[in-house]
Structures are given as structure tokens and as C-alpha cells.
Amino acid sequence: MSPQTVMDGLIAGSMIGLGAIGVTLTYSILRFANFSQGDLVSWGAYFAFAVAGVLGSLFTGLTAPIGPFSFSWALPIAAVLAVALNGVLALVVDALLFGRLRDRRATIIIMVMASFGAALTLRSLLEFIFTSRPEYYSKALQIALPLGLGLRATPDQLLSLVVALTLVGAVHLMLTHTAIGRAMRAVAENPQLAGLAGVEVRRVIRVVWLIGAGLAAVAGITAGALIQIRPQMGFDLLLPLFAAAILGSIGSVPGAMIAGLIVGLSEAFAVEVIGAQWRGAVAFVILVLVLLLKPQGLFARPQ
User: Fold this and answer.
1) 146 by DSSP, 3-state: which?
2) Which domains, from first to last, does the chain contain?
3) How far apart, in whole angstroms, are the C-alpha atoms of residue 114 and residue 142?
4) Which of 10, 84, 47 is CA-nearest to residue 234?
5) φ/ψ (deg, to 5) at 122
6) DSSP letters along 27-56, please?
7) What pLDDT, in 10s, does the model give residues 247-264?
8) Considering the entire predicted model, what is its pTM?
């Protein structure tokens, strides 16, 4: 694998890892595979696109590029608002759909099928509002900078890596060193017992949705800043997200990020060796192999 392939894989893997954290948290606490997580990635990207467009039209001073980066000041501000809006969207979906099913003690398969329906609805609504035409945060071209050892990356790509690793570290510290983090781990172990011990399970569920949707928004914005955004982008990432979540062990935030990097590197290696047309099959192969050989994942805690 060439050094540049490694860099490309790490950049793609960081986006996959961010989205996979939402998948692993949702599964470990809500006990179902949320197939709408990919579409939250798309919605986060489009929230930032819409807000940045409004800010740019209202405040022309925000349209100036930031140093060596391709985007203007409007995008970081829009990103913060997009994270909040994506969190609100996730809470609305939970209140209208998943929360009602939980109250009725719906089975896991019902929750999974409901997430399929939510994903289709979110995707169709996004395409109805913005059309299927790809959009760009910026069309400015960047020159990759030499980093040594044969590695090259643009300033946007380096920033995406730093942001992803910073967020993973922040979420991990929150889970291990805060009261809400301890409550989340308690609910993940045993929701009924956690409730009896005084943990407010509904509050924990809301926090999980906010974190998952926020990280999905950042993943979508990162993908948009590096490539483009379109309504199908989250759906295309869905299989890699689940492959990373399972490979990294359900419930492990660092595991999800490391597994995301593994998936990203594997896809980049496949593109280099056998061609880009097989990129999408890599996550599927990884998922099948993990389920067959080590279904508990690479970072499962000993029982």
C-alpha cells in the first residue's frame, strides 16, 4: 500500500468512524440497529449548506476564505448550528416514532423496520427539498501539501482528521469521566436496573440521540468540505458505518473510530489494487468476516 493510499484511507476512515459512534451508541443503549443514522449524516451536511448560504448572503464579511482552507467563515458557524439542528431532528424522529414504539414495548425487529422507514422518509424529504443535484460548500481547488514519507494532504483533509480525533477523545472522556457518561454506561448494561437505581433513562436516551446526530452532522460536513454533498451520501456510508460499529465492538467509542480507520484503509487499498468499482464491497466483506470469526468485535470487554 502506497503512503498516499494510507493517507486517503485515514481521511475516509475518520468520517466513517464518526458516523459509526452514533450507530454503536444507539445500538448499545436503545438495543436496535438504527438504519436512519446514515441519513442523519446527509441532513447534517445539508443543514450546514443551507445555513452557510443564508449567513453568506446576510453577512458578506463571512464569505472570505479562512487562511489555507477552501471554505469561508460561514461554514464553521453553520456547522455549529447544523449540529444543533441535526440533534433536534433526531429528537423529533424519536418522539414521533421510536419513543412511541418503546412505550408500546415493540420488538427489536419492529424497531429496525421502523428505522428503515425513517431512513427512506428522511432521504426522500431531503431530495424533495434540495433535489438530487450534488452541491458544494466551495469549488476552490486546493494543492496537497507534502508531509514527508511520501504523504500528501490538503489543509481541509488535515483539519478533518484533527476534528475527528478530537471529537472521539471528547466523547470518550465524557463517557468515562462524567455523570451522564456513567448513566449511559449503566443504561447500556441494564436499563431496568439503571432505572431502579435512579438513572433517568429518558434523559439518557435524549443525550444519545443528540450525540449520535451531532457526530453524524460533523461527518457529513467533513465529507461535503472534502468532496460534495448529495441526498444519497448517507445511504452510501451506511454499510461502512455498521461494519465499523461491529468491528470496533458495540459500545466502544474508541473501537468505533479505530474500526472506521480500518474500514477506510481497506477501501483505499481495494481501490489501489482491484479498482474503485469494488470499493463498496469491502465493507460488506469486513462485516461478514467479523460476524463469522469474531462477532463480539475487536475491542469487546471481557465478561
Assistant:
1) strand
2) 3-141+153-293 (1.10.3470)
3) 42
4) 47
5) -60, -40
6) HHHH-S--TTHHHHHHHHHHHHHHHHHHHH
7) 998 888 889 999 999 999
8) 0.92
